[in-house]
Amino acid sequence: MKPAKTMAMTLLTLAAVIALSACSSKPVVGVLLPMTGEASTYGESMKRGIDLALEMDQAVLPTGFQVVWGDTASVPETGAAEMKRMAGEGAVLFVAGTTSDTARALLPMLDETNSIAVSPSASAPSLTKDSRRFFRVFASDELEGRRAGRFLYDDQDKTTVLIFAADSAQARGIEPPFRLVFEQAMGGEVVGRVALDDDGWESESADLLAAHNPASVYIIGYGDETIEALRHLRGKGFEGPICATSAFYTSQIVENNPELVEGVYFPQPAFDIQSEAQLTQDFVNSYRQRFQADPDIYAAHAFDAMRIVIFVASESKSFSPVDIRKLLAFGVKEFPGVTGIIQFNDYGDVHHNPIMFIVKDGHVINYERYIEEEKAKIREKIKELLKG
Q1: Sorting pLDDT into bands at 50, 70 and 90, what band is 276?
Q2: pLDDT at 268
Q3: 3-class SS shares of the chain: helix, strand, coil, % to 5
Q4: Other residues' Cβ atoms within 10 Å of the Cβ of residue 62
Q5: Cβ of 40: how many Cβ atoms within 10 Å?
Q6: Where are the alpha helices (DSSP H) in 57-188?
Q7: The pLDDT of residue 14
């Protein structure tokens, strides 16, 4: 055989081997959560949800399925470095992006590592618009801000509000749509804004409360920030309705601060622990049995995110970034989740309208169901009085 022909045959054989190797790429998934640092309460809930998804879907895991774990330490830059390390260990598809600030830091790394992420909870509106590699199962902040605005004005009949806001991507995503609905659409008045990251915010808040006597309060922050604002408001004797964000609620926050969170309202994406849907009840019962606690929205969304990832890993022929993105964009059709039906739009978003919840006696309750139950109690009391 001539040398040139031999070289050509060798190159063809090598190309075939490479192609075969690509087609049989082992499905390695990265799970990147804040297991330490200020956001660790969210990470702990999410890890529980992910562990449960892996356990419940054990029978459908594809051959060679592997999970690589990482800790963002609640620091965006650390999260980006961890993603790079995990990609070096073979991870192509990630469950990552817990907070919006960390998710923002991961977007360039997705390009650098040629990988795809499914976020369980990052909610800043621009994230999915800024990267075609970023999908999420959590509703955008735009929907949550609008729902909170309608709730305070319409449901609670309050025309003035004082806003407490942290300096975060989450707050910057929620506040504009809240104002759009409460001020412009409804005609309400925002009497002031307290920046929770500023020195002396408590003094500024006290002045605004005294000067304007707002009918309601809206707190836009994560758990610890919201608790500090609630502690301040309780100390000042504020008696109006207080609405927080979905980011405030974790099981640990409610358990550790029962008096502060009592009566607080908040919108959250559609996960209702009391839902009669079979999938939701299976998840809730399994979670309670394993962890002796109720799942919160972060455990639920992480559970759904991992089940989506398992589905993609099972369906993908090559587990390449191109194939993964194609499956997420076009292959996930009305996927049943405990947070609702999951189907991504052109940007990688789901459309789950938030519903309102209230904390009562240490329990997080669907607000509409709570109102109906209270009405039923009143009707029963009226019947008893009429009988007497």
Answers
A1: confident
A2: 86
A3: 55, 15, 30
A4: 14
A5: 18
A6: 76-88, 100-113, 127-130, 141-150, 169-179
A7: 44
Q: Which residues pair with 242 in a beta bridge?
A: 217
For the ranges 91-95, 154-158, 299-303, 378-382, the lowest mean pLDDT is seen at 378-382
Q: For residue 62, give the DSSP letter.
A: P
| Eight-class DSSP state of 93 | E
**d(Cα 53, Cα 57) in Å, to the nearest integer?**
6
DSSP states of 47-60 = HHHHHHHHHHTGGG
Angle between helices 76-88 and 100-113 (to 10 degrees): 30
Which CA distances in Å does 328 have to 92, 111, 113, 116?
14, 17, 18, 10
Average pLDDT, the chain: 91
- pLDDT at position 13 is 42
d(CA 263, CA 12): 70
Phi (first) and psi of residue 263, to 5 degrees: 85, 0
pTM of this structure: 0.81
Q: For the chain, list the domains and their CATH numbers.
A: 19-139+277-342 (3.40.50.2300), 142-268+355-376 (3.40.50.2300)
Q: In 356-376, which positions are buried (b, 16+ CB within 10 angstroms) versus exposed (e)?
A: bbbbbeeebbbbeeeeeeeee
